[in-house]
């Protein structure tokens, strides 16, 4: 895992924790491979909100068609890393 991906995972976990007001978990202890829908309980509105925060945070566009693919924090981090590389 690259430092960029690790930093992205930590920041995305922090955003999800803040948006969902999750207690008893920190960005450092958040399991990046948990399924956000099945294990965390994120619904489509939560995911849309998180996508907007990520868009503003990273300055990338996240297509609504891509939302169903963004199932874990690790996958979101890889998605963002790829999008940022495409911008360069």
Automatic annotation (TrEMBL):
Residues 3-84 form the Carrier domain. Signal peptide: none annotated. Pfam families: PP-binding. It comes from the Bacteria. This is Acyl carrier protein. The lineage of its organism: Bacteria, Pseudomonadati, Thermodesulfobacteriota, Desulfobulbia, Desulfobulbales.
